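pls design
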């Protein structure tokens, strides 16, 4: 990575900051992910009048909203930035769709414009008017369908030809679907990725009596908590033997499962689906399981994961292991001037020395900000992300118990569970004597603030002492003391 010390060489869009140059040819640095070494012409434009856009972001989601904010903060948005979006709305905080958006209609559900980015991180609410005021060109409901990397042009579904100087791909993920032949497209079968999906689900919930949720991950858990609020008969079906298997320990998963059961949710675990069946009205009527048994349903929500939306940008270089578009620690793809951020980016997870794709909002926000800063300034430090996942459910008015957990780090090694879930509980992951990951349910603000410190610094932990901790507070004190001792030493 020797070339990374030369900040001038690193800035794909740097020359674009000089409005008087008409074009610039310069070499692209080599990098650890094998950039091709060739020259590239940058077309410079200081306004949209000649239809050349200096900076184009494709995808108007979470990452796009935070990227736009960073362009504005750097004085580089006005007349220079264009966002091309498939959706009809300005960027919003997507996690809200399975949380406040699905609250029962009499329990003050949230609706746009209340959750436009960047409210999720305490920032300004960027409504469509905000983009106008900041001179950002927004193209709605017109997805990009092709790219010509030589001519530096994009074509949209409606046939618009957009020229770009620098391009940021922020196309996120697409919900995985059941194939049509097993009923994946029957009316009443829902997937949830955007506002239109959530609205369609709500219109089904208004008439629903029996809901079947397929999938025991984030989406399944969050939608089930919502349908409890709607007082609907809810069954969650999934092939694994526990909830949220990618993160939770079996014991933690069991605690959450019990909580859902106390709220009336039924679970069918370790079960495969044969197909979804339509009734005489053409709407979904039942879910047929692998063993031939039938679960009645008038509404089904499928939450079986998501796939990175790399199309039509495959040409910039994909990662074949984790999927998505391969980038380096400054979010540069293999083609000069083209970057990728958020869910779609396969990036070096420096802390754990591996390439990862992270489908979580914190990474979408941070990667977008890091990428734009690197693009516009001399910032050359590599992205150094600490994985952070969270969920919040049962938060509607009148709910007997709210659930809010946060996880930081890596879920590797031996696990230690402290607390009895009333409502607090913590799980510590310890590998080679060091704390690698920590999850906390219902912590205080100070306790939640401690988690990233612990996961980032990975203090050595006395496992015997931790095992003996009689409360979450005591366990966190033990971890904090180890951290402080190591910091003093
Ligand atoms: C229902 C739901 C709940 C979630 N809850 C949580 C949570 O609790 N905690 C958490 O950490 N994360 C959560 N996530 C994940 C989080 O929302 C994502 O990680 C985040 O939105 C990723 O941001 P992004 O900008 O990369 O992608 P997105 O926000 O998905 O935005 C991508 C945008 O690109 C658009 N697009 C795609 N292709 C094109 C194209 N060719 N042309 C133009 N536009 C295109 C899409 O329509 C979309 O608007 C949730 C996700 C969903 C769907």
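designed seq:
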């Amino acid at each position: 990575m020797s070339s990374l010390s030369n900040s001038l060489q690193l800035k794909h869009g740097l020359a674009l900051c000089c409005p008087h140059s008409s074009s610039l040819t310069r070499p692209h640095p080599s990098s650890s992910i094998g950039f091709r070494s060739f020259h590239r012409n940058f077309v410079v434009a200081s306004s949209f009048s000649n239809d050349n856009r200096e900076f184009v972001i494709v995808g108007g989601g979470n990452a796009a909203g935070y990227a736009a904010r960073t362009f504005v903060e750097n004085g580089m948005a006005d007349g220079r930035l264009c966002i091309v979006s498939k959706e009809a709305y300005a960027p919003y905080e997507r996690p809200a769709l399975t949380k406040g958006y699905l609250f029962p209609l009499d329990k003050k559900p949230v609706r746009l414009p209340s959750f436009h980015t960047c409210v999720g991180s305490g920032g300004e609410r960027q409504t469509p008017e905000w983009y106008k005021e900041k001179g950002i060109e927004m193209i709605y409901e017109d997805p990009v369908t092709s790219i010509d990397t030589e001519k530096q042009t994009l074509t949209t579904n409606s046939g618009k030809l957009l020229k770009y100087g620098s391009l940021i791909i922020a196309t996120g993920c697409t919900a995985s679907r059941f194939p049509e032949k097993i009923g994946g497209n029957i009316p009443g079968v829902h997937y949830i990725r955007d506002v239109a999906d959530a609205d369609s689900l709500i219109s089904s919930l208004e008439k629903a009596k029996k809901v079947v949720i397929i999938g025991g991950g984030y989406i399944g858990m969050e939608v089930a908590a919502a349908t409890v609020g709607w007082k609907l008969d809810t069954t969650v079906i999934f092939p694994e033997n526990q909830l949220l298997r990618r993160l939770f320990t079996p014991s933690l998963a069991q605690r959450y499962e019990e909580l859902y059961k106390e709220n009336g949710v039924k679970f069918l675990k370790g079960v495969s689906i044969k197909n979804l069946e339509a009734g005489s009205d053409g709407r979904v009527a039942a879910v047929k399981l692998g063993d031939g048994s039938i679960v009645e349903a008038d509404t089904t929500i499928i939450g079986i994961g998501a796939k990175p939306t790399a199309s039509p940008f495959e040409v910039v270089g994909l990662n074949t292991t984790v999927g998505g578009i391969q980038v380096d620690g400054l979010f540069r793809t293999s083609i000069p001037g083209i970057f990728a951020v958020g869910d779609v980016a396969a990036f070096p997870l420096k802390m754990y020395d591996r390439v990862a794709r992270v489908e979580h909002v914190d990474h979408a926000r941070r990667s977008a900000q890091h990428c734009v800063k690197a693009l516009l300034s001399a910032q050359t430090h590599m992205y150094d992300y600490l994985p952070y996942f969270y969920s919040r459910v049962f938060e509607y008015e009148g709910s007997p118990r709210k659930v809010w957990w946060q996880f930081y780090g890596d879920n590797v090694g031996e696990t230690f569970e402290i607390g009895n879930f009333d409502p607090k509980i913590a799980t510590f992951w310890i590998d080679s004597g060091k704390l690698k990951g920590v999850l906390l349910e219902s912590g205080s603000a100070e306790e939640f603030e401690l988690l990233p410190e612990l996961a980032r610094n990975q203090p050595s932990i006395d496992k015997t002492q931790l095992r003996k901790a009689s409360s979450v507070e005591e366990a966190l004190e033990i971890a904090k003391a180890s951290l402080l001792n190591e910091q003093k030493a």
